[in-house]
UniProtKB/TrEMBL annotation:
Its cofactor is Mg(2+). The keyword Isomerase applies. It comes from Halorientalis brevis. Keywords: ATP-binding, DNA-binding, Isomerase, Magnesium, Metal-binding, Nucleotide-binding, Topoisomerase. Mg(2+) binds at residues 199, 251. It comes from the Archaea. This is Type 2 DNA topoisomerase 6 subunit A. Its EC number is 5.6.2.2. The gene is top6A. It holds the Pfam family TOP6A-Spo11_Toprim. Belongs to the TOP6A family.
Length: 366
């Protein structure tokens, strides 16, 4: 079901206006306007073992008009709320980048943003305090270009009305491009057995060219590196609504393990949306340090930053299982990392004919 229905848009606008009204009421009662939000530091991010995702802790910080900087932040919030409410009234949308530049037109100079990081953070603040996602504000990131390819039929809204698309038969080799708000997509039917999220474009193209999606009834999701929110959301929907197992196929290095972690458990940056974006049941099927040894894969040496990242992951709640401890300690021991495409050293068909089928079978996915 779409969350961009007129009802959802009305709710989003109402919550924004309610937030602005709270500032007015504080003024009206002679109080200094404030806005309380969870402290957005790493020390206030906790791993919820029951839900299996990152969430904010109990500490909060207060934006107060008692200080000049606090007053400026609240002023920027008011101007941004006014812009977003008008945008919803007109049924228009804008990108995060455009919001930064649009602030140049605000008639109060102190309400203008000094950087895009500042405007991006304010949108995240408004998401948290209003409990409305930015997609419902009609705010878009720049296009991520992430795609899906597989035996899935969907219905989506276009400027010319609804259309049905089969994500194999009705798309080119590039696949179906994931929209900014995947909740506007309706899943109609599918013949899929599992979802395979792939880090790199080169490997995604190899799988499609070799017909892996057709032979194994797989929905291939191209993550494009660190996955965008829309990519993580559609992956979660494919799991939750269609009951499909989710696997994540990445390079064999600490940064790629974190890509898996963001799909499975959420990211620190979007901890307020972990239950909406993360798929804790996702399984890692990427290049393992033991693969580097067993298949004698072409490798690169670990850099100092790689080593630091691996050591940090040994303390990360997302990687505390016996499996991850064993793999990370092995990687630190061999001092090597490898890319997905290093499997091509054994032939272009090795990944689809041998590596992935064997791993998927071991995991009980196929």
């Amino acid at each position: 079901m779409s969350t961009d229905s007129p009802q959802a848009e009305g709710d989003a606008r109402e919550r924004l206006i309610d937030l602005a009204a709270q500032f007015y009421d504080q003024f009206d009662h002679g109080d200094v306007p404030t806005m309380s939000i969870p402290t957005r530091t790493k020390s206030n991010i906790v791993f919820d073992d029951e839900k299996g995702v990152w969430v904010y802790g109990d500490r909060h910080s207060t934006r107060s008009a008692k200080t000049v900087s606090g007053a400026q932040k609240l002023l920027k919030a008011i101007y941004t709320i006014d812009f977003l409410a008008q945008q919803l009234d007109e049924d228009r949308s804008s990108t995060l980048r455009e919001l930064y530049y649009l602030s140049e037109s605000f008639d109060e100079k102190d309400a203008q943003f000094n950087s895009q990081d500042e405007s991006n953070q304010l949108i995240e603040d408004l998401e948290i305090v209003s409990e409305v996602r930015r997609e419902e504000f009609h705010m878009r990131p720049e296009e991520s270009g992430a795609t899906i390819m597989g035996p899935l039929r969907i219905r989506e809204q276009t400027r010319r009305g609804e259309r049905e698309i089969h994500c194999q038969e009705d798309v080119g080799e590039g696949g179906y491009q994931i929209p900014n708000n995947p909740d506007t997509i309706e899943f109609l039917d599918n013949d899929a057995d599992f979802v395979l999220c792939v880090e790199t474009g080169g490997m995604r193209d190899r799988l499609v060219e070799n017909g892996f999606d057709e032979e194994y009834n797989a929905i291939i999701v191209h993550l494009k590196g660190q996955p965008a929110r829309a990519t993580r959301r559609i992956t979660k929907r494919l799991h939750d609504e269609l009951g499909l197992p989710v696997t994540v196929f990445t390079d064999g290095d600490p940064w790629s393990y974190r890509i898996f972690g963001s799909v499975a458990y959420g990211s620190i940056k979007s901890a307020h949306l972990s239950e909406y974006l993360a798929t804790p049941e996702a399984q890692y099927i990427g290049i393992q340090p033991e693969d580097i040894v067993d298949y004698d894969l072409p490798t690169d040496p670990l850099s100092d930053s790689d080593v630091n990242a691996l050591e940090s992951e040994l303390e990360d709640p997302r990687f505390t299982s016996d499996y991850w401890k064993e793999q990370i300690e092995l990687q630190l021991d061999i001092e090597k990392k490898a890319e997905q495409q290093s499997l091509a050293a054994r032939g272009l068909d090795f990944v689809t004919d041998t590596y992935l089928p064997e791993r998927l079978d071991e995991m009980g996915v196929i």
